[in-house]
Amino acid sequence: MPEKVLVYAECKEGKLRRVAFEALGAARRLAGEDGEVHALLIRPGDALSETEALLARGAGTVHVASDPILGVYAPEVYLAVIRAAVDKVQPDTVLLGHTAAGRELAPRLAAAYDAGHVADVTAIEVAADGGASFTKPLYAGKAYEKRSFLPGGMRIVTIRPNNMEAAPVLDEGERSGTAAELSFAVPKLYTAVRSVVRRSGGQIDLSEADIVVSGGRGVRSAEGFEPLRKLAELLGGAVGASRAACDAGYCDYALQIGQTGKTVTPQLYIACGISGAIQHLAGMSGSRIIVAVNKDPDAPIFDVADYGIVGDLFEIVPLLTAEFDRLLSARSG
Description:
- The termini are far apart.
- The chain has 9 helices and 17 strands.
- The chain folds into 2 domains: 4-181, 3-Layer(aba) Sandwich (Rossmann fold); 206-332, 3-Layer(aba) Sandwich (Rossmann fold).
- It has helices at residues 18-31, 48-56, 75-89, 100-113, 226-235, 243-247, 278-284, 301-304, 313-332, and strands spanning 4-8, 11-12, 15-16, 36-43, 61-66, 93-97, 116-121, 123-126, 132-138, 143-147, 155-159, 178-181, 211-215, 238-241, 268-272, 289-294, 307-310.
- The longest helix is centred in the last third of the chain and has 20 residues, at 313-332.
- Helix 3 (75-89) crosses helix 4 (100-113) and helix 5 runs parallel beside helix 9.
């Protein structure tokens, strides 16, 4: 039987998050050739460019909910919109990004429909008979388990950003999707957000960054993060931090990576002055390549690093920045 898959294509600051395209790629695999892929776009106003981007990557129908009330995220309102889309599409599977919003909305959605729910999925395998298994990490990434759903019910799945291949852009002749307006009822009681204060704005979202330069207690001060910011900016990456650095007041907790912070899976993770406590490793051990810079040769971070540099980060990081700058300038020239 053909599968219907609905993707909540989450936006951030007016732009589609990359995990929306990754979820769309997973949806196309789950639906197969004969299934249907639907995308839900929630916007406060015009959504033409975002709609076209989703259609270009294989969405069969993009359901657009557009209303000024959607300008600021409110879980009750957004849940009402997603429920309206679910009632309209009647999907077999709903995919969301494992973001702050996705983690909040998915269990509520599962409870509302008495549906199965798997969170933080890093891989999806589709069998020849159409059955699917969903892989998720356990024990801070030390083990993985595969889960599947009993037949007959709806599946609610959140996907960890930066772990699955995004849906490719199709040629003009391969696109056959359409856009449709989605009507929804605003709940009578909901949380009203008066303002949003962005304390770590201006950089790429940590969970979606391909390159993360992270600092620990070894940066010694708030000013100690400046060399790291320069390196991250040069590489087009984001700056992160260990809990120790956040607790010491060197940076905002929005940058914290680890068991009680964010989980990141970049292509390149550069750990500067981070000892490698198990709590921090829980948030970054899934990185493709790990480079550690630490003056202590016995620091635990070297046990998980692909490349290790023993030395003072205030000497090493500027040298790395200068060398990367030289290589990038030579390539562009």
